[in-house]
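User: Predict the complex.
Assistant: Input components as received:
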Amino acid sequence: NAGVTQTPKFQVLKTGQSMTLQCAQDMNHNSMYWYRQDPGMGLRLIYYSASEGTTDKGEVPNGYNVSRLNKREFSLRLESAAPSQTSVYFCASIGDGRVLTGELFFGEGSRLTVL
Amino acid sequence: AQSVTQLGSHVSVSEGALVLLRCNYSSSVPPYLFWYVQYPNQGLQLLLKYTSAATLVKGINGFEAEFKKSETSFHLTKPSAHMSDAAEYFCAVSEGYQKVTFGTGTKLQVIP
């Protein structure tokens, strides 16, 4: 079972460049999330999508945009990358039966460095 | 607003010793509480969860946690540490629909 798949796993960008992180899940989950992980700060929610066609801001949305392309896919776009966006990005999803309990399924992460 | 505090960003224990990772939460409603584990270069995976069914929760790999409302705590324990337990552990809280808030994490080192 693939679960939650993220691409790319590693990326180096120059300041001002743009890129899109892709996420796909094969568990038929309605809700999907993008988190960033920084040393000493845990995981912080960037954006989430409760269902296909809807997106909402999380704790740290500035500098990012998202697209819920269909039920399986949820992408995160950096329009003009900044060094402060150097981080590890995680995509996660929740099954319908687990939404109220918040039990997340995570991808393996995308490690982004902005020079 | 919900939040969690993990005491100690790094914890070292000897192999075979007790593991105790501390987590305190703040929530305006009865919370759901979780411990996730992250092995190097991997995503997070659920270790155990509290959803009000029982205050002592058993998880995978011999870990357990006890919900103490009076202390607003949800500490993670394991009686005997194994080398394979070396990882980063995250406490998390959810007040329900959609939003899960994570602590800053505790890296567990197991010394042979």
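The longest strand of chain A covers residues 31-38.
Let me know if you want any component modeled separately.
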